[in-house]
Amino acid sequence: QVQLQESGPGPVKPSQTLSLTCAVSGGSITTSYYYWTWIRQPPGKGLEWMGAIGYSGNTFYSPSLTSRTSISRDTFKNQITLQLSSVTPEDIAVYYCARNQNGLAEGFDYWGQGTQVTVSS
């Protein structure tokens, strides 16, 4: 059973960089052909696909967020990291990590429970 657990530092101030970690257990993040994705849901809105990192380390980003987003991995810790720079109150959301087999915004078989991100000065 694959489990994903998101974690973050708590409230972030505007203009700072948000950094979230997704710890994966029950499976390796380098296993073919899985992709590890960050998705967020602002209050009262739908899910937004932010980007993904594949089993080989290749990355994909949403065009609307690519200039501010970086997804990386630590294969020793079996973790995925999301960094989102220059945050604003519009980045307030629940952030999820999830797994699929195509790197796209569909077909997720495992999700984390999500972590709430607040942006406040």
Protein described:
- The protein is globular.
- The protein is built from no helices and 10 strands.
- Strands 3, 4, 5, 8, 9 and 10 form a 6-stranded antiparallel β-sheet that branches.
- It starts with a strand and ends with a strand.
- By secondary structure, it is an all-beta fold.
Strand-helix topology:
Layout: E1 3-7, E2 18-25, E3 35-41, E4 48-54, E5 59-61, E6 69-74, E7 79-84, E8 93-100, E9 110-111, E10 115-117
Antiparallel strand pairs: 1-2, 2-7, 3-4, 3-8, 4-5, 6-7, 8-9, 8-10
How would you characterize the largest beta sheet?
6 strands, antiparallel
Q: What's the shape?
A: globular
Please trace the helix and strand order, writing H or E for each element. EEEEEEEEEE
**Fraction of residues in β-strands:** over 45%
Q: Helix- and strand-based class? A: mainly beta
The whole-number mean of residue pLDDT values reads 95
Beta-strand segment tally:
10
Helix content: under 10%
Number of helices: 0
Provide the gyration radius in Å: 13 Å
Through-space gap between termini: 40 Å
Low-confidence stretches: none
